[in-house]
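Service request form, structural biology core

Requester: graduate student, group of Dr. S.
Request type: structure prediction, single chain
Budget code: on file
Notes: please return the result as structure tokens.

Sequence provided:
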Amino acid sequence: MAVESLPNFTPMARRHWTSIPAGVRQKLLSNVWCGECRAEVTITEFRGRVDQGDLLLEGKCSECGAEVARVIEAG
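Core staff response, request fulfilled:
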């Protein structure tokens, strides 16, 4: 995913996200829990920000459209 395609990321979140290898990023995006579906789903239409040092991705469930989030803890 090109940096240009991350318009909804804060600058710090963009730096964190692009420092993660592409294959790992794909796994993180496709392994998000949806409370409505009660299943592992893919996050879509996501945005990113850093919260207390961790990267927070917020977006929509690919199956039902409910709001979902993924926290990627700082290493």
